[in-house]
Amino acid sequence: YLKNLEDLRQLPITEGTPPVRLCDIAKIMESVGPSDIRRIGQKRTAIITANIQGRDLGSTSAEVMEKLREVEKPREFFITLGGQNRELTTSYQSLRFALFLAVFLVYVVMAGQFESIWLPFLVMFSVPLAFIGVILALYLTNTSLSVTVFLGGIVLAGIVVNNAIVLIDYTNQLLARGFSLSDAIITAGSVRLRPILMTTLTTVLGLLPMLISRGEGSELRYPLALTIVTGLSSSTLLTLWVIPMANYMFSLLITKATKK
Predict the structure, then answer these.
(1) Assessment of whether the complete model's pTM goes beyond 0.90
(2) Strands, DSSP E only, in 88-178?
(3) Residue 1 falls inside a structural domain
(4) Which of 1, 84, 118, 242 has the CA that lies 20 to 30 A from 191?
(5) Does any domain span residue 28?
(6) How far apart are CA 207 and CA 137, in angstroms?
C-alpha cells in the first residue's frame, strides 16, 4: 500500500536487479492547485472514492452506510453511494424481476402440460427445496450474495422442476391405468429414481470443473457453479421425499373437495 509520498517515489516500474523505480524516471513533488466546486443537480457535492480489497461490495457498502448514519450532519446534508454500488443495486432489481419472470414462465408451461392450474404449484414446490441447499452452502463457504449467485438461482428455477415433473407425470399415467393413489406414488418413485439421479449426476459432474477451478476468473465462475450444484443436489434429494408426500396429501384434499 502507498501510505505517503516516499512510498510513491519507491514504486517499482520494472523488474530487474536493481529494479527501476518511479523516482528514477520522474520528479515527484507536492504542489497546490486551484480548488474546484462540484455540483450535481445544482447542489454542491463532495465526492469520496475508495477501492475495496478482500471483501465483497455488498457487505462493505452496507457497513459504510451504517457508519455514516452515526455521523451527525446538518439537515440539508445527505449522503448517497454511487459508482459500482449503484450499478449493483440496479442489477439486483433486474435479476429479481428475471427470477420471478422465470418462475412464472415455468408455471405457464407446466399448466399447459398438465392441463391444470393446481398441479404446477405442486411441481414448483421443488424450487424452495433447492434454495435450502443454496443458503446452507453460501453460509458454510462464507460466499456473499452476488450477481452470479442470482444468475444461478434463475437457472435453478428452470432446472429443479424437471425431477418433480417426471415424478408427477408418471404418477398420473399410473393413475390412468387403474393404480391406487398410494401404489402409483410408490411405483413412480421407484421406477423414476434412476433417471432422476442420472440426470442430476451428469449436471453436477459437468459443473464440477467450474466449481473446483481456482484460476483467473474463478471469482465469477465459482459462485455460479456453487449455487447450481448445491441447489440441484438438495432439490433432488428432498424432491424424492417431499414431492410424493405432498402429491399424496394434495390428491386426498382434491378428492375430499370433489366429494363435497
Answers:
(1) no
(2) none
(3) no
(4) 118
(5) no
(6) 16
Q: Which residues of the chain have pLDDT under 70?
A: 1, 34, 54-56, 58, 217, 259-260
Q: 224-234: per-residue pLDDT in tens?
A: 899 999 999 99
CATH number at residue 133: 1.20.1640.10
Please name the helix (run of DSSP H) or strand (run of DSSP E) that holds residue 251, with its range, or none. helix 218-259
| Length of the chain as a residue count | 260
In this predicted model, what pLDDT tens digit does every residue of 4-28 receive, in sequence order?
888 888 888 877 778 888 888 888 8
Terminal Cα-to-Cα distance of the chain (whole angstroms): 76
Report d(CA 10, CA 197) in Å as an integer. Answer: 60
Number of structural domains found in the chain:
1
Beta bridge partners of 68: none
Cross-strand partners of 21? 12
Residue 203: all three cell numbers together: 449436471
Q: Does 39 map to a domain?
A: no
Is residue 208 in some structural domain?
yes
